[in-house]
Automatic annotation (TrEMBL):
UniProt: ATP binding residues: K31, G32, G33, V34, G35, K36, T37, T38
GO MF: ATP binding; ATP hydrolysis activity
Stored InterPro entries: MinD_FleN, P-loop_NTPase, ParA/MinD_ATPase, YlxH/NBP35
GO-annotated biological processes: negative regulation of cell division
Superkingdom: Bacteria
Protein name: Flagellar biosynthesis protein FlhG
GO CC terms in record: cytoplasmic side of plasma membrane; cytosol
Sorted UniProt keywords: ATP-binding, Cell projection, Cilium, Flagellum, Nucleotide-binding
Gene3D superfamilies documented for this protein: P-loop containing nucleotide triphosphate hydrolases
Amino acid sequence: MKTQADKLKELVKTETTKSKNIHFIAITSGKGGVGKTTITANLGYALHKLGFKVALFDADIGLANLDVILKVKTDKNIYNVLKNECSLKDILVEIEKDFVLIPGKSGDEIIDFADEVALSKFFSEFDILEDYDFFIIDTGAGIDKRVQLFLEASDDIVVVTVPEPAAITDAYAMVKLISEKKDKAFMVLNEVNSEKEALNIFSKINNVARQNLKNEFRLQMIGFLKKDRLITNSSINRELFVKKDPYSASAEQIFNIAKKLAKISERKVLEPENRGISRFFKKIFSGF
């Protein structure tokens, strides 16, 4: 007898989708408290200011706080859409034109509410976002199975860490996990004192990765953020530091990361694989 999960997996395989090649980026970390959500929000805003359509998805289970940083109120999330309490359009929060937040919640309990009809409707509603350029996922910290599902379904993964022994150890553990499913990952060093310190820490992590992980796996430092009172104050005041002071050194560092990701995205546009939002969530659900 087929279980509910089996039926959902069959639906995932049979559903059709139409979309352009949207770029999915998961921002993750080995441990909490390293600035992952702050970087996600500001990076999304920077990409938006570069002229891209950007959707942010809060998948940080239990600690969802993108809405706090973006200073918006969210009463419902994707969980409510799956329970047929509202539509996807009802939960979208427009921060600015073509820059939106999708409040999210995930977990095995979704299976209890997402039957074939609800899930099919859920997939079809993503048509309203299929012309977006970037879908950025703020994942939970650590190697929880639900975090792994989002990492595996994403095109690219950015691991955030800070120059603390525990954070660096956990960041490597995350990189090791990613290497089992992907051939590459990016890293952002946060709260460093200098570019030299960032490069030094990354070099140590990368050397261990080269010695112990599969040969084809590549780890690349895509940027860094120096310690800055602007970032601290912006977090306290629930502001985007890139928006508050777009000409600051910290904003420049975020924009540098955004430009690198934009170049990577340009190369992927030429690839034939369909990477629509519906397809992304089908991958997520097939993993439950």
